């Protein structure tokens, strides 16, 4: 069973694979990769993978501490 985290406008599914996909439903955010970069979160934008700009791919190949930092930064976005 995956860990699923929901923070206001984001839904994150961590399936213990190399990558997680994140979609944003926040009004006014058209380019999620740029929006997250402004919030110190590095991702790969959806257009690189054939999907729209409101989707990003997040690397999960890191430590639990890095994942917890990622979750903390997502949770702090208003």
Structural notes for this entry:
By secondary structure, the chain is of the alpha+beta class. Helix content is 26%, strand content 29%. It has two helices and five strands; from the N terminus they run βββαββα. The chain has helices at residues 32-38, 64-76; strands spanning 3-7, 10-14, 19-24, 44-45, 55-59. The chain has a five-stranded antiparallel sheet with strand order 1-2-3-5-4, with helices on one face. The longest helix is centred in the C-terminal third of the chain and has 13 residues, at 64-76. It starts with a strand and ends with a helix. The model has no long low-confidence stretch (mean pLDDT 81).
Stretches where pLDDT is under 50 for at least 5 consecutive residues are: none
Largest sheet: 5 strands, antiparallel
- The count of β-strands is 5
Structural class: alpha+beta
- Beta-strand portion reads 25-35%
Helix content: 25-40%
Main-sheet strand order equals 1-2-3-5-4
Radius of gyration, whole Å: 12 Å
User: Can you write the helix and strand succession as a string?
Assistant: EEEHEEH
Number of helices: 2
Distance between the termini: 28 Å
Shape category: globular
Mean pLDDT rating? 81
């Amino acid at each position: 069973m995956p860990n699923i985290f929901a923070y206001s406008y984001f839904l994150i599914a961590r399936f213990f694979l190399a990558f997680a996909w994140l979609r944003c439903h926040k009004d006014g955010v058209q380019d999620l990769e740029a929006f997250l970069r402004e919030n110190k979160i590095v991702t790969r934008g959806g257009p690189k993978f054939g999907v729209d700009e409101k989707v990003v791919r997040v690397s999960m190949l890191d430590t639990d501490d890095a994942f917890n930092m990622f979750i903390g930064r997502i949770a702090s976005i208003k």
